[in-house]
Amino acid sequence: MNATPTPGSLLISPKDHTLIMIDFQSQMSFATKSIDAVLLRNNAALVANAAKGFGVSTILTTVAEKTFSGPMFSEITDAFPGQPLLDRTSMNTWEDAAVIDEVNRIGKKRLVFCGLWTSVCIVGPTLSALDQGFDVYVIADACGDVSDEAHERAMERMIQVGVRPMTSLQYMLELQRDWARTETYDMTTGIAKKFGGSYGLGIIYAKSMFGASEGH
């Protein structure tokens, strides 16, 4: 055995994956009970802003936006001004030709998913993508369902077949990975201060009181 200071192949990086954000819409959130709506919106905003800031290829998709489910959370669309939303009729995003055309156009084998609801809108595409040979991750705390039971069983079902779970803050910090990367340091800590909960408060305190910086 000979250890080297190199990251593992299962860690994500900004350029090695496509983020797919699914059905973050008002109607879908009304019945979401496994996570508080404010926390859900906060986590989704953190993911969206991190993806935008690091230049991650991102697909935004909705279901019946104009006729039933309503607009995508502004916290997400504000991060991607002008980006088209791919509206669907299918519950399984993977069965929508426009979405798959975009996945193929981008051409990345690694996919990261989040959205509402976990048991339908996330299980469907993740299992479908996995079946077609893609490397699949799910941001568990940027997903939600009609009950704790529904969310947890959906996560278990995906994990059992090889989908890899992560959290919203983990997603952003894995993109940064090294505080010495000064070109994205201020952006990452700025997103954390705004959307990173108690971790963000800690950054605000340390910088305000001591001028602290993780990279120095």
UniProtKB/TrEMBL annotation:
The keyword Hydrolase is annotated on this UniProt entry: yes
Kindly give the SUPFAM superfamilies that the UniProt entry links to this protein: Isochorismatase-like hydrolases (SSF52499)
Residue span, Isochorismatase-like domain: 18-168
Q: Does the keyword Hydrolase apply?
A: yes
Q: Which GO terms describe its molecular function?
A: hydrolase activity
Q: Which PANTHER family match?
A: HYDROLASE (PTHR43559:SF1), HYDROLASE YCAC-RELATED (PTHR43559)
- Identify this protein by name: Hydrolase
Q: Which organism is it from?
A: Ciceribacter sichuanensis
